Each structure stands twice: as structure tokens, then as C-alpha cells.
């Protein structure tokens, strides 16, 4: 096995957290600088413009009279400033600030501001467009590109909370730099933490996967990275994140049922233990400054007009410190598509009374005045909404004068976007996340000494934009899979398919000829992130598109050397045929790895990096979706109807690959050092009994200081140092329809070859071990729990 020269990782002068995250992925391994490949940079032309002035209020230098307004006095508290501003506005002016494209109030020095910016996995070009400087993201000659991180579904596969937060920090720094020159705003509608419930969902790629805990950790970490300032001031924001989509949103367009008309029928149990936890964590643990309500109805009520969901839960229970925005045109949708109200004024009133503060669209701007006139809405409710909006902007410094004078971020500019260390970090994120699914006979990594010619074949083999996925910006550079592999070995190339990944026509002869003469063949197949799965587009099935499977099989049969199959996709793919094919020695899932993802993929294949990613989703067989309607929201199986349930937590049928699957070039073993055999739960409340067992309420009295530690040692038996994702699962007693298995915690560790690393998990009994009963109440099941880490199993009992 040929490896790069090893080197230590040192932190010199850049962000400590960024350096630490790089070290987590690069200790003892060369970081493979981006300059080693010939990257494509000319695929995304941008307009040439001159520098722009960003949007900001209280420009006291140009208008000294503004100094007399308390809302322009940065030394006052946010609430005092907001109260002063709101009392100076007319009703029409207040309504003008409830739309995504806010109306300027020139007499008070408040400019137009566009709330809609996106930063799902880097600054994106998705948004409303509009004039420069108003707060909307635009790539121009001033800032032509931004760092492109892997799509979220792949980043989640790293199981690295440090990585989640540090990506957010890099993205927010680039956002501030772009804002200072008028080509981005300060409010970003990310992350998407919906649960990837159905493998056909087109937007599942935008999420951290199917597990509530992983999704919660990702969302909270990414939000902290986006929002937390370098001075640690909890009352101020670097940029404002927005958790979406609230709630039970995971269908685009399936067999004539679309997201604008769909009524998600969700049990209280599924709501509390599957659909809500990641959104709650995003708001509560991440302290997000925004939340977006979704298009769909939930149990007959539009999510954006349900006061129980918005005012009672988000504001009352979760204590959102920020604003609630609708998905774009969602208020119009609940009126025009869902016919929830008889008049437009009623729709406006219903959404604002429920808790909406910002309408992504013109609907509230057109119909809120009519709602007030008709007596459906009072001005005090509007005051509450705009106060939330102004408070968010004040926490961002929007009312503190020119951004260039910001004490922390005022000096940032175009040179701080696409910095070399940021680009390298994006590749490192992909390296830590790529999942090795098959490695027959230890074929991988490929040895440079034995590969004199490498055939690279497939519709995604020379992919550029297809590597990005949904909600992508313009990358600093592209490194395609072909370019990345060519940096290691001489390559020959054939796309194998016409029509890109759709592959309605195959070109077998050229592909088979190359494979027959090459020392090894890499097939880069999969889905396309916008044309086959994406926003507004759910997948029809789980098989490789078009004739890709034929191409894979024919090339494998004709190949002279080992065949490595690379799958580029968001959702899982039924590739059982390839898993069973002895000619296909290796299988990798690379998600959508970002603009330079080809470099990371090549680093894994040739052993410059030891793979450590784990699947954040279940890969089902095609037969699963043939019998499960996408519109059925139930998570738990129903033996009476044959409904199999969803996700690894409740589904026990056949899989192609399972949640948490992922191989390494090393073998890791686990040794349990310390864990309790019995956990006693104090309770003064009556136990709840069923025919399957007993449980107690997970209330404050029961849960106070109730937890325990699990101490493990992880040993690397291999010859290669590397990262390892340690996943701790629990199988609770069978009561209240509890999950068959659920993730309790995870750690990303680094273990040297033949070395050993200690790992400690802190288990909060009420938070981690509890289950949700049929009424949506958290309970602690009494009885035997089986804890699992890899092939290690340990039993403990929980009793009163």
C-alpha cells in the first residue's frame, strides 16, 4: 500500500476551531493540497459589477438627525430599541416589514432588506434575486464564488459534531465578508433538519438523515457555527440561522400528491419522538434566531396557520428568540390551494395570529390591511410580529451603522471568501464523510505501484455541478472524480451513458474496451441532485436510473482488473446486484461531495485517507417502496396490514445497507471498561402498565441528575491510522411501541495504527433512554436494555 508522507497537524494563526476540525480529520495524513489537481473554474460565469453598499439602517454619518432616535443607539438594550422603533411606525409601514422583501422607511433611515438568503452547505445563489445591496445573495465579479461544502446528507455521515459546527463557522464568515460588500444579507434560511422518512423524498439530501439524534446534533451544531460570535456575546448574532421546515414535511410530488396540497396525518407519538426532536433541538439547543413553517397541513391544519404548533410550542415551550417565516408563498398556498379560509384577509389574519412574522412572498403585504379593517386582526398582534423581526436585525447589527465598522467582522471582504484553507477544509469534510460499503479481499485502497492505467467510467465520472446537490452556490473550484483520480494514476475515460445520469442510452462498447485493458476500473454512477431528486421532485423508485445497472454489469464482466463502484446520490439506491457481483470489489457512497469532491473521493480510493463515514440512512430494496405509499406518515409497523414501518428504528425487513454501515481500511475492536448493571429511577408517581411492561413518567422530579457513564476502549488492529465513528445504540424494553433500536450517542475519534483510544459516553436516562407513549408523553421503560457498540453488546436493567 502506497501512502503519502505523513505529517503532524499544527495550528498557527487561523481560526482555532477550524484548525482543530482539520486536525480531527488530518492527523498523521497529508491534507492533499487542492493545487495538485487541474480544477475547472469556468463553468459558472458571473456578471461584472462594481462594489456595492450593503443594506443597513441608522446611517448617522450621512444623516446626523438619526442620532436622536433611541432605536439607533447601540448602547441601549435590544428590546428598548425595538419598542422605540415600533411606536414610530405607521400601520402600513409595519405591514411593509412583514414581507421577505421589506419596504424601506426612508423617513427613519431604514432601507429595503431582503430576508431570503440560503446557506445549506455554503453560500448559495438560490433566492429571489433583486438589486445589489438589499440583502440578497448574488455572485458577481466582486465575489464570484464561495466555498462549497458537501451536501448535508454526506456531512452527516461523518458523525462529527465538531465538523458540523466548524462548517457553519466558515460559512458565516464568508457570509459576513459578502455582506460587507453588498452581495449577501445576514439572515440565512438553513439548516434543513426534517427527518428523511421516505427514501424517495427529493429533498432528503438536504437533511442529516433519518435519525432524530443525529439530526438534532447536526442542526444545533451548524446553527451554533453560523450564529455564535467570536466574542461569545449570547445576545448578538454573527448571522441568523433558520430551522426548517416546521413540521412533518417530507414530500414533494408523489403520484399527483404535492407538498402544496398534502395533509400529513401524524400520530402524537410519531410527532414527539420522530418529527419534532430535531426541530426542537435546532431552536432550543442551537438557539436559532429563525424558524420556517412548511407548506403542508398537519392533521388538517396548515402548518403556517396553526397557533398550537407555532405560538404554543415554538414560542411558548421552545422559547424561540427570533422570527417565524413562512415557506415561500405558503400563506397564499393555504388560501388558494388548500382553501383553508374563505377570504385572503382571513388567511392573512390566521397566519399572523398563529405566529407568523415574515411572509416569504407578497401575500401579507397585500391582504393584512384588509384583515385589520375587517376586525380580524388587531394592530397589537402586528406589533408583536414586527418586533420579532426588528429584534433579530438589531442583534445582527443591522441598526448599528455601516457593516464595515463592525468591531468583529468589519474588516472582512472578498479576500476572506474561498480562502485556500476553507477550500481544503471542504475537501476534508468530504473525506471524513465518504462511506466505504464493500471492500472484498481488501482490494481498496488501490496501490499506486500496481495501477499503471485506470479506466474511469460513468455518467458522474466527470461531474461538476452534479456533485453539488440542491441549494448550491458557485464553488471556488471544481475537481471532478476524473481529475481527482488522474492526479494519482494515468486514466482513460468514457461516460458510458448519454443524457448524463438519466442514462436512457448506454455506450457499452467504448466503456467495455477501456475496462478490458485497464489495471482497475472505477465506475462513477448514481443520481443527479436536481434532475432526478430535488425540490419539487421525488424519486419514482430506488434503482439506478435508466440503463446504469446494465452499464455496471457489462463493464464489470469485461474488466481486466478490480472494479470499484462509486454511487453519487442523496437517497439510498438498490444496488444489491452490485453488492452480490464478485467482479465488483469495492463500493463507495460519496453523496454529493461538493465542488472539489473528486479530490476527496480519489484520496479514499488510493489510501491517502482511511474512510470513516457511516450511512445516516437506510438503503432499502426496491420492493420496499413498491408496497409503501409515500403519503403514509406512520413510523411504526402495522402487522395487521403488513405495513413494515420506517427507518432503522422501526423497520426490521431486508435492507441493501443499514443505517450506520461503513467500513474502514483498519479493523477496530471495542472493550467495555465500565458501565452500570442496574439504574434505579426515583419516582413518586404511579407506574404505567401495559400488557408488555411498565414505565414511569420522565418528568423533572424523576429526571433530576439521573444519568450514568459508559467507558470504552477502541483499538485499531490495522496497519493504517485513521478516524473511527463510534455509534452507541440501545434496544429498550418492548413497551409503548418503542423503537427496536435507537442511537444514544456518537463520537468521532482518531486511533493510530495498533493504538488504543478511550471513549466515554454520558447517558442521560430521561433524554437518551426514554421512549414516547401513545399520547406523546415521554416515559422511562422499566426492564432490560441492550446497549450496542459495533459487535459489543451489554445489558443493563432500569428499575424503580
From TrEMBL:
<dbReference type="Pfam" id="PF14310">
    <property type="entry name" value="Fn3-like"/>
</dbReference>
<dbReference type="InterPro" id="IPR044993">
    <property type="entry name" value="BXL"/>
</dbReference>
<comment type="similarity">
    <text>Belongs to the glycosyl hydrolase 3 family.</text>
</comment>
<keyword id="KW-0326">Glycosidase</keyword>
<dbReference type="InterPro" id="IPR013783">
    <property type="entry name" value="Ig-like_fold"/>
</dbReference>
<dbReference type="InterPro" id="IPR002772">
    <property type="entry name" value="Glyco_hydro_3_C"/>
</dbReference>
<dbReference type="InterPro" id="IPR001764">
    <property type="entry name" value="Glyco_hydro_3_N"/>
</dbReference>
<feature type="signal peptide">
    <location>
        <begin position="1"/>
        <end position="21"/>
    </location>
</feature>
<dbReference type="GO" id="GO:0009044">
    <property type="term" value="F:xylan 1,4-beta-xylosidase activity"/>
</dbReference>
<dbReference type="Pfam" id="PF01915">
    <property type="entry name" value="Glyco_hydro_3_C"/>
</dbReference>
<feature type="domain" description="Fibronectin type III-like">
    <location>
        <begin position="724"/>
        <end position="793"/>
    </location>
</feature>
<dbReference type="InterPro" id="IPR026891">
    <property type="entry name" value="Fn3-like"/>
</dbReference>
<keyword id="KW-0964">Secreted</keyword>
<keyword id="KW-0732">Signal</keyword>
<keyword id="KW-0325">Glycoprotein</keyword>
<dbReference type="GO" id="GO:0048046">
    <property type="term" value="C:apoplast"/>
</dbReference>
<dbReference type="InterPro" id="IPR017853">
    <property type="entry name" value="GH"/>
</dbReference>
<protein>
    <submittedName>
        <fullName>Beta-xylosidase/alpha-L-arabinofuranosidase 2-like</fullName>
    </submittedName>
</protein>
<dbReference type="GO" id="GO:0046556">
    <property type="term" value="F:alpha-L-arabinofuranosidase activity"/>
</dbReference>
<dbReference type="GO" id="GO:0045493">
    <property type="term" value="P:xylan catabolic process"/>
</dbReference>
<keyword id="KW-0378">Hydrolase</keyword>
<dbReference type="InterPro" id="IPR036881">
    <property type="entry name" value="Glyco_hydro_3_C_sf"/>
</dbReference>
<dbReference type="InterPro" id="IPR036962">
    <property type="entry name" value="Glyco_hydro_3_N_sf"/>
</dbReference>
<dbReference type="GO" id="GO:0031222">
    <property type="term" value="P:arabinan catabolic process"/>
</dbReference>
<dbReference type="Pfam" id="PF00933">
    <property type="entry name" value="Glyco_hydro_3"/>
</dbReference>
Amino acid at each position: 500500500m502506497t501512502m503519502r508522507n505523513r505529517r503532524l497537524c499544527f495550528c498557527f494563526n487561523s481560526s482555532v476551531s477550524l484548525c482543530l476540525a482539520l486536525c480531527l480529520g488530518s492527523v498523521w495524513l497529508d491534507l492533499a493540497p487542492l493545487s495538485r489537481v487541474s480544477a475547472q473554474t469556468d463553468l459558472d460565469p458571473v456578471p461584472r459589477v462594481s462594489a456595492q453598499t450593503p443594506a443597513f439602517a441608522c446611517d448617522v454619518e450621512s444623516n446626523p438627525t438619526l442620532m436622536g432616535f433611541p432605536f439607533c443607539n447601540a448602547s441601549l438594550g435590544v428590546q428598548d430599541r425595538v419598542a422605540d422603533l415600533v411606536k414610530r411606525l405607521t400601520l402600513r409601514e409595519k405591514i411593509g416589514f412583514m414581507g421577505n422583501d421589506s419596504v424601506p422607511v426612508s423617513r427613519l433611515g431604514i432601507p429595503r432588506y431582503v430576508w431570503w438568503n440560503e446557506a445549506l452547505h455554503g453560500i448559495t445563489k438560490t433566492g429571489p434575486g433583486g438589486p445589489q445591496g438589499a440583502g440578497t445573495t448574488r455572485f458577481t465579479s466582486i465575489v464570484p464564488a464561495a466555498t462549497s461544502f458537501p451536501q448535508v446528507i454526506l456531512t452527516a455521515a461523518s458523525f462529527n459534531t465538531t465538523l458540523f459546527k466548524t462548517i457553519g463557522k466558515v460559512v458565516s464568515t464568508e457570509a459576513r465578508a459578502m455582506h460587507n460588500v453588498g452581495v449577501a444579507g445576514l439572515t440565512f434560511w438553513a439548516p434543513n433538519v426534517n427527518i428523511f422518512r421516505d427514501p424517495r423524498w427529493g429533498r432528503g439530501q438536504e437533511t442529516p438523515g433519518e435519525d432524530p439524534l443525529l439530526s438534532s446534533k447536526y442542526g444545533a451544531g451548524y446553527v451554533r457555527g453560523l450564529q455564535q460570535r467570536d466574542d461569545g456575546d449570547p445576545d448578538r448574532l454573527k448571522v441568523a440561522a433558520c430551522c426548517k421546515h416546521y413540521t412533518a414535511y417530507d414530500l414533494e410530488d408523489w403520484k399527483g400528491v404535492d407538498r402544496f396540497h398534502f395533509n400529513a396525518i401524524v400520530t402524537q407519538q410519531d410527532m414527539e419522538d420522530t418529527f419534532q426532536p430535531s426541530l426542537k433541538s435546532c431552536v432550543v439547543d442551537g438557539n436559532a434566531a429563525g424558524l420556517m413553517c412548511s407548506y403542508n397541513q398537519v392533521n388538517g391544519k396548515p402548518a403556517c396557520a396553526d397557533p398550537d404548533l407555532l405560538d404554543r410550542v415554538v414560542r411558548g415551550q421552545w422559547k424561540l428568540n427570533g422570527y417565524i417565516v413562512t415557506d415561500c408563498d405558503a400563506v397564499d398556498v393555504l388560501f388558494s390551494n388548500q382553501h383553508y379560509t374563505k377570504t385572503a384577509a382571513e388567511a392573512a389574519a390566521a397566519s399572523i395570529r398563529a405566529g407568523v412574522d415574515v411572509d416569504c412572498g407578497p401575500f401579507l403585504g397585500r391582504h393584512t390591511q384588509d384583515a385589520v379593517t375587517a376586525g380580524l386582526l388587531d394592530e397589537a398582534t402586528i406589533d408583536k410580529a414586527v418586533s420579532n423581526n426588528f429584534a433579530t436585525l438589531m442583534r445582527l447589527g443591522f441598526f448599528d451603522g455601516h457593516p464595515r465598522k463592525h468591531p468583529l467582522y468589519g474588516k472582512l471582504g472578498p479576500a476572506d471568501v474561498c480562502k485556500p484553507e476553507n477550500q481544503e477544509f471542504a475537501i476534508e469534510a468530504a473525506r471524513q464523510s465518504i462511506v466505504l460499503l464493500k471492500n472484498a479481499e481488501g482490494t481498496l485502497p488501490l496501490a499506486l505501484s500496481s495501477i499503471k492505467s485506470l479506466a474511469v467510467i460513468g455518467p458522474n465520472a466527470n461531474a461538476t455541478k452534479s456533485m453539488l446537490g440542491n441549494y448550491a452556490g458557485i464553488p471556488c473550484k471544481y475537481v471532478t472524480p476524473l481529475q481527482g483520480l488522474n492526479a494519482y494514476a494515468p486514466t482513460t475515460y468514457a461516460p458510458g451513458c448519454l443524457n448524463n445520469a438519466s442514462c436512457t442510452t448506454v455506450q457499452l462498447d467504448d466503456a467495455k474496451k477501456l475496462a478490458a485493458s485497464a489495471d482497475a476500473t472505477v465506475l462513477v454512477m448514481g443520481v443527479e441532485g436536481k434532475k432526478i431528486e430535488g425540490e419539487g421532485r421525488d424519486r419514482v423508485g430506488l434503482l439506478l436510473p435508466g440503463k446504469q445497472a446494465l452499464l455496471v454489469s457489462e463493464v464489470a464482466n469485461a474488466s481486466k482488473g478490480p472494479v470499484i463502484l462509486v454511487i453519487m446520490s442523496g437517497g439510498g439506491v438498490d444496488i444489491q446486484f452490485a453488492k452480490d457481483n464478485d467482479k465488483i470489489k469495492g463500493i463507495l457512497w460519496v453523496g454529493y461531495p461538493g465542488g472539489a469532491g473528486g479530490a476527496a473521493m480519489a484520496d479514499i480510493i488510493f489510501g491517502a485517507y482511511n474512510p470513516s463515514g457511516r450511512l445516516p440512512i437506510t438503503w432499502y430494496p426496491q420492493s420496499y417502496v413498491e408496497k409503501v405509499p409515500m403519503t403514509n406518515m406512520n413510523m411504526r409497523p402495522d402487522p395487521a396490514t403488513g405495513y413494515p414501518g420506517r427507518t432503522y428504528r422501526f423497520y426490521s425487513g431486508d435492507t441493501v445497507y443499514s443505517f450506520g454501515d461503513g467500513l474502514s481500511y483498519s479493523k477496530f475492536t471495542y472493550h467495555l471498561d465500565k458501565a452500570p448493571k442496574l439504574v434505579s429511577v426515583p419516582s413518586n408517581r404511579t407506574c404505567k402498565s401495559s400488557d408488555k411492561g411498565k414505565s414511569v413518567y420522565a418528568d423533572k422530579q424523576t429526571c433530576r441528575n439521573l444519568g450514568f457513564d459508559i467507558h470504552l476502549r477502541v483499538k485499531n488492529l490495522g496497519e493504517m491510522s485513521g478516524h473511527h465513528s463510534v455509534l452507541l445504540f440501545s434496544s429498550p424494553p418492548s413497551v409503548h411501541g418503542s423503537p427496536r433500536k435507537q442511537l444514544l450517542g456518537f463520537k468521532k475519534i482518531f486511533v493510530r495504527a495498533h493504538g488504543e483510544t478511550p471513549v466515554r459516553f454520558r447517558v442521560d436516562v430521561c433524554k437518551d433512554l426514554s421512549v414516547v407513549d401513545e399520547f406523546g408523553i415521554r416515559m422511562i421503560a422499566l426492564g432490560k436494555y441492550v446497549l450496542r457498540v459495533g459487535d459489543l453488546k451489554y445489558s443493563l436493567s432500569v428499575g424503580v
